[in-house]
Design goal:
Blueprint: H1 32-46, E1 53-57, E2 72-75, H2 81-91, E3 96-102, H3 103-109, H4 111-120, E4 125-130, E5 133-134, E6 140-141, H5 160-163, H6 169-174, E7 179-186, H7 190-208, E8 213-219, H8 223-226, H9 230-244, E9 248-252
Parallel strand pairs: 1-2, 1-3, 3-4, 4-8, 7-8
Antiparallel strand pairs: 5-6, 7-9
């Protein structure tokens, strides 16, 4: 092989972070979890904080997150990741601590924990994966399920008069004084992945700078639970979830003031 034919590492379209463990992921093909795992591993590796990072794993599809990223992990009971993270942060104030939670975990059973942790301004990063459904347990309606969305428990679509309205957790935590950076991203295209990674790195840096709670929501797909192909799920997400959960920063201020809408 001639020298000119050798592909240089910096020119590879896909490069594997050294922090990703050589374990085959259990996620369904097309699931957003795997993409976000890769971004977290890349961000931690590039920022050189592997040895000082502690992740709090949830209950849900991502319960085995500790099998894939080579950092210290702590498992939490369903919805209690912010409470566990609070203890870890206060015992280890020089560590970078983050929680990784789905919408059924964070917005339902863990709603009280996340609201109070954000209100206290605990110095941690919250990564919130919102696919609008309980993906692990059979595709039931979640607090974030949008109106008219079909799930196993809303076969005719979510009815706000019967089931209440979809819960915009990110909008809620943006109003709390303890949050310094609150953003909503996605990971369905190359451009979206790059934006999501920048948001994650900014959230990490805020924690390192001790600015309180940073909150990164990632609007995601569950093509298995939605009964769609990955391509169909991405299109459905863009056409239906993005209008209700618009992407972008909701708060970005050292003083914790909401981003101006003007």
């Amino acid at each position: 092989m001639e020298t000119k034919d050798i592909i240089k590492p910096e020119n590879l379209v896909y490069g594997k972070s050294e922090l990703l463990i050589d374990t085959i992921m259990h996620y369904c093909p097309g699931c957003t979890h795997g993409v976000v795992h890769k971004l977290i591993a890349e961000a931690i590796g590039e920022m050189g904080i592997q040895e000082k990072t502690i992740g709090i794993a949830p209950v849900g599809c991502s319960v085995f997150a500790y099998n894939y990223i080579d950092i210290d992990w702590q498992e939490a009971a369903h919805g209690r990741a912010p409470a566990v993270a609070t203890g870890v942060v206060r015992l280890n104030p020089d560590k970078f601590v983050f929680t990784y939670q789905g919408d059924g975990d964070l917005a339902s059973i863990g709603a009280a924990e996340i609201i109070h942790a954000c209100n206290r301004g605990e110095n941690m990063l919250v990564i919130f994966i919102n696919n609008g459904i309980y993906g692990m347990t059979g595709g039931q309606m979640a607090p974030t399920t949008i109106e008219n969305m079909v799930t196993s428990t809303t076969p005719c679509g979510r009815d706000s008069e019967l089931n209440g309205y979809p819960l915009k957790m990110t909008d809620l935590v943006a109003q709390l004084p303890g949050t310094s950076y609150v953003t909503r991203q996605s990971a369905q295209t190359a451009a979206a992945v790059r934006k999501c990674k920048r948001a994650l790195k900014k959230g990490i840096q805020n924690v390192l700078d001790k600015k309180g709670t940073s909150f990164v929501e990632v609007i995601s797909t569950c093509n298995s639970g939605w009964k769609m192909t990955p391509v169909q799920a991405n299109k459905w997400m863009e056409e239906n979830m993005f209008p209700y959960y618009p992407l972008g920063d909701l708060k970005d201020s050292e003083k914790g003031e909401p981003v101006s809408k003007n």
